[in-house]
Amino acid sequence: MKFFIDTANIDEIKKAASLGVLDGVTTNPSLIAREKGKFEDILKQICDIVDGPISAEVTATDYEGMLREGRAVAKLHKNIVVKCPCILPGLQATKTFFEEGIPVNMTLVFSATQAIFAAKAGARFVSPFIGRLDDISTDGMELIEQIVQIYDNYDFATEVLVASVRHPMHVVEAAMLGADICTMPYSVIEKLIQHPLTDIGLKKFLDDWEKVKGR
User: Which pLDDT does position 159 carry in this prediction?
Assistant: First the structure.
């Protein structure tokens, strides 16, 4: 499984990259809005840190607008992936981007049928939002299971990028189901490596070593 960080914060991206496990970055307009600086400058900084797919979302909701924004942002760096929302103009734009060789991450996916359309339109990644489904008492992981099964059935090349990840169990369950990628905040990345028994064991080792040093 590949690990992406879901943020536009440069400090968090640097910290995640230093762990040696970071494969890419996903951003969206809300994440960009939290940071200082121009949209393009932030993306360029991210591309300098992480050598992997960097998702940048269009804000237009019409076909021509998506093409205009997507083409412009794709020119910033070879690793830029254009994020398009899963709406009819988004599908049209995805098909055109695919024909032009511009990779697309289809975002705001909440159903298996949306995921099928995204793959058929040529999206490189599909982003089902599992946390937001959980928020409305729907099983987000069930959707991941459905998409992975459908993509396997028909050998779709589109990668399943699990988004709206809230906690480590989302990551574990997604990995068990065979999802390709999980994207998550830095706080969740930190939790993936933390375990109370590790802390307890380390403390005991260090306490015992102090006794050895004191002999």
Answer: 98
